[in-house]
Amino acid sequence: MERRKLLLALAAAPLAFTRLCAHAQAKTMKDIEALQKNWKSFLPAGASVPAAGEALKLSKDEWRKRLPNDLAYKVLREEATERAGSSALNDEKRAGIYACAGCGLPVFTSEMKFESGTGWPSFFTTIPGVFDIKKDFYLIYPRSEYHCKRCGGHHGHVFDDGPPPTNQRWCNNGVSLKFIPKDGQA
Ligand SMILES: [Zn+2]
């Protein structure tokens, strides 16, 4: 490679890296607060979404009818876990909102997502006030299970080995999420 071309390539590298890792731009807790505050800017124009306070309570039969398939029912209503790598949302890179697949409550924005390498969609923070957390003991050690504040649907587990500054890894079942692209094209 010519020296000039090499220099140009080196100069371009940090920018490309920043684009690859959306979270690289959130360096301080102030950046995280800004991401949490501006989540509505990721909604398509004119979209109307429910709020966490508008509780959605349905019977088991009603949930079976409402949810698209058996896996969604098992994960959201019975706290099952989808197979790693099985969700198309692992590779979703567009700008938009991740809403609860059970009730439509917006829970994450695309800028809160990062590539964890686990095979599940992963996020380093959430839209504020959308999840309740409880400890479960399905494995030998306690884990923090979180579920949707509006419909009680199970989403995943939160761990403390995520990227700084939050160090949180919200490990979410893809089947519990519905992606709403900002440009309105599903
Ligand atoms: Zn929900």
What's the SSE blueprint?
Layout: H1 3-20, H2 29-37, H3 60-66, H4 70-78, E1 96-100, E2 106-109, E3 113-114, E4 122-123, E5 131-136, E6 143-148, E7 154-159, E8 169-172, E9 177-181
Antiparallel strand pairs: 1-2, 1-9, 3-4, 4-8, 5-6, 6-7, 7-8
The protein binds zinc ion (ZN).
Description:
With 186 residues, this protein is an alpha+beta fold. It contains 4 helices and 9 strands. The strands form 2 sheets. A 6-stranded antiparallel β-sheet has the order 3-4-8-7-6-5. A 3-stranded antiparallel β-sheet has the order 2-1-9, with no helix packed on it. Strand 3 (113-114) and strand 4 form a beta hairpin. Residues 100, 102-103, 105, 148, 150-151, 153 line the site of zinc ion.
Protein traits:
186 residues, alpha+beta, 6-stranded antiparallel beta sheet, 3-stranded antiparallel beta sheet, 9 strands, 23% helix, binds zinc ion
Overall average residue pLDDT: 88
Largest sheet: 6 strands, antiparallel
Strand content: 15-25%
**From the alpha-carbon coordinates, what is the Rg to the nearest angstrom?**
18 Å
Residue ranges: pLDDT <50 for 5 or more in a row? 6-10, 12-23
Give the helices and strands as they follow along the chain: HHHHEEEEEEEEE
Structural class, please?
Answer: alpha+beta
Bound molecules: zinc ion
Structural shape: globular
Helix content: 10-25%
Number of strands: 9
- Order of the strands making up the biggest sheet: 3-4-8-7-6-5
Helix run count: 4
End-to-end separation:
43 Å
Summarize the structure.
Helix content is 23%, strand content 22%. With 186 residues, it is α+β, with helices and mostly antiparallel strands. A hairpin with a 6-residue loop joins β5 (131-136) and β6.
